[in-house]
């Protein structure tokens, strides 16, 4: 698999609705790119970004919403 660079310098990051205002555990996503969902830690916006295939991210979010997980 080829290693490719995705330019996210102009991406519109959105903070998770589960994030609180005190700078705690915050996840940001970009959800308007075709076929991919970049995810990062909002406390480290210049740090690493994980990029998921959109269908895998959708499956993950659905599983979390439909599961009784502590703290969610």
Biggest sheet, spatial arrangement of strands: 1-2-3-4
Distance between the termini: 35 Å
Tell me the overall shape.
globular
Major β-sheet annotation: 4 strands, antiparallel
Estimated helix fraction: 10-25%
Radius of gyration: 13 Å
Mean pLDDT: 83
Number of helices: 1
How many runs of DSSP E, i.e. beta strands?
4
The H-and-E topology, N to C, reads as EEEEH
Q: State the secondary-structure class.
A: alpha+beta
Low-confidence stretches: none
The percentage of residues in β strands lies in: 15-25%
Features:
72 residues; four-stranded antiparallel β-sheet; 17% helix; globular; DUF397 domain-containing protein; DUF397
Question: What can you see in these coordinates?
Answer:
The chain has a domain at 26-63. The protein has a four-stranded antiparallel sheet. It has 72 residues and is of the alpha+beta class. It has one helix at 54-65; strands spanning 14-15, 27-29, 36-41, 50-53. 17% of the residues lie in helices and 21% in strands. The protein has one helix and four strands. It is globular, with a radius of gyration of 13 Å. This is DUF397 domain-containing protein.
């Amino acid at each position: 698999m080829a290693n490719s660079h995705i330019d996210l310098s102009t991406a519109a990051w959105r903070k998770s609705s589960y994030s609180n205002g005190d700078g705690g555990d915050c996840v940001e996503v970009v959800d308007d790119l075709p076929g991919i969902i970049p995810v990062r830690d909002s406390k480290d916006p210049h740090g690493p970004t994980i990029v998921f295939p959109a269908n895998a991210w959708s499956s993950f979010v659905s599983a979390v919403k439909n599961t009784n997980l502590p703290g969610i």
